[in-house]
Design a protein that fits this description.
about 220 residues, alpha/beta, eight-stranded parallel β-sheet, about 15% strand, globular, binds pyridoxal-5'-phosphate
């Protein structure tokens, strides 16, 4: 029983609430986003049956193959894109996702503005900040973040509601979460997507409104 998705979902959900209530900086509500990359449909169904309603996928194509049927079957589901978005997939992403968390460059912002106008509907957007300034990682550099956020919101009128980050694996995560929070506060942005299986408790202490949990829900990824 201990390794079922339903058992893990109950544990993670309880832990989120426990930390949230004990932390002065914590948000009034923390949403669990199930990071479901590489998970087969049976696991997605187990998570849904356990009450999980928000899922994060890393790739547009994988999401297109996994979710349309399930979304028809379970109308309340919400889908977030949490992996990097190529501009040539922006149209599909605008169609498919309720939230795109990985807006990270001016060219993508411009493409999304066009696709949103064309589709007549807009996903909510989060800007990904590369708080660790890692070369291989996506996200806008912290020193460029203020200008980029202002450009996306004021000039392109994009529906940006918050920020997202993935701290370097070898770093203590707290300073990264604190930095993300500080940038968001400067711009009056209320959503903070930060924290994964290994560091979600710290993220909640720093005000995360959303934690993206894979392994702690589904077990180790097979692929
Ligand atoms: C896979 C992934 C997660 C979940 O990671 P776990 O450590 O398995 O909880 C969160 N965010 C992003 C962007 C991911 O790619």
């Amino acid at each position: 029983m201990a390794d079922t998705v339903s058992h893990k979902a109950a544990l993670v959900t309880a832990r989120i609430e426990e930390i949230r209530k004990a932390s002065p900086l914590a948000a009034a509500q923390v949403t669990l986003v199930a990071a479901s990359k590489n998970q087969p449909e049976i696991k997605l169904r187990e998570a849904i049956a356990s009450g999980v309603r928000v899922f994060g996928e890393n790739k547009v194509q994988e999401a297109e193959s996994k979710w349309p049927g399930l979304r028809r079957e379970f109308p309340g589901l919400r889908l977030h894109l949490i992996g990097p978005l190529q501009s040539n997939k922006a149209r599909d992403a605008v169609e498919l996702f309720d939230v795109i968390e990985t807006l990270d460059r001016p060219s993508l912002a411009e493409t999304l503005a066009k696709e949103i106008a064309r589709a007549g509907k807009a996903p909510e957007l989060l800007i990904q900040v590369n708080t660790g300034e890692e070369k291989q990682k996506s996200g806008i550099a912290p020193k460029e973040a203020d200008n980029f956020i202002a450009y996306a919101i004021k000039e392109l009128k994009l529906p940006v509601t918050g920020l997202m980050c993935v701290p370097p694996v070898d770093d203590i995560p707290a300073p990264h979460f604190a930095l993300l929070r500080e940038i968001a506060l400067r711009h009056g942005l209320s959503n903070l997507s930060m924290g994964m299986s290994g560091d979600f408790e710290t993220a909640i202490r720093f005000g995360a409104t959303e934690v993206r949990i894979g392994t702690a829900l589904f077990g180790e990824r097979v692929v």
